[in-house]
Amino acid sequence: MRLRFDRRSSQILAGIVVVLLGVGAFLARGPIGLGNGPLFLESFSISGWPDLHHVPVGLIVPVINRGRSAAVINGVTLVGGGNGYPAPRLVTVYAAHDAGCAAIGSLADPDSQASASACATGRLALAGLAIPPSRKVTDRVTGDLVAVSTLGLVAEAAAPAAGRCWTLKAMAIHYRVGIRHYTATTPEAGAVCGSGVSSTNLQNAMNSIGG
After folding, report:
1. Cα distance between residue 45 and residue 47, in whole Å
2. pLDDT, tens digit only, all 211 positions of the chain
């Protein structure tokens, strides 16, 4: 004998299923925070770099925790600029002691702005790493107390193929504070081109990000 449900019973059953799925997601990941949350990510803004030696590209972003509790980074997502250009492929991401700059370029080249010696030092695994509330210093111009970063995120992306470019439009940082989860998005405008690409084509790739 088959059980038959009328429309009202079906709607009630569907509602119960949705509620149970929502409860399951809450128990699995915790509540979702609104907006970027307490983390502020410094941007390297509009940057272009010719990757002539086909080396991994370092994307360094200082992190400021404006909250009162530690934040634990869960992961990073790179968002491409589109317009015919692929997104960079993320190879690895880790934390480092911030030396006060945001940049895009080679981590191995000592003459690069993004080299490890210029922007960030050390290599700290993200697993279980807590970013404490940022310390505050007095701004020399305004006299106000401002938060400063002590840790930065270093995302290494695969180099573009020879004759090709990739573009980056945003970096999404997934993290939690206690049981509450956030995604902080920092808008970026960056392009990297492989060997054989002219400076004009690199500029075109950068211009495409805002189009």
Report:
1. 6
2. 444 545 554 444 444 433 443 444 444 445 666 678 999 888 877 788 899 888 999 888 889 999 999 999 999 999 987 888 999 999 999 998 876 678 888 888 777 777 766 677 888 898 878 999 998 889 888 888 888 887 888 999 999 999 999 999 988 999 999 999 999 988 778 899 999 999 999 999 999 987 5
- DSSP code, position 108: S
Both structure tokens of 209: 């990000």
pTM for the complete prediction?
0.77
> Mapped to the 3 state alphabet, what secondary structure does 38-92 carry?
CEEECCCCEEEEEECCCCCEEEEEEEEECCCCCEEEEEEEEEECECCECCCCEEE
Instruction: Tell me 147's DSSP state.
Output: E
Length of the chain: 211
Contacts of 71 (CB under 8 A, 6+ apart): 37, 38, 39, 65, 130, 131, 175, 176, 177
Q: Which two tokens stand for residue 103?
A: 């940049």
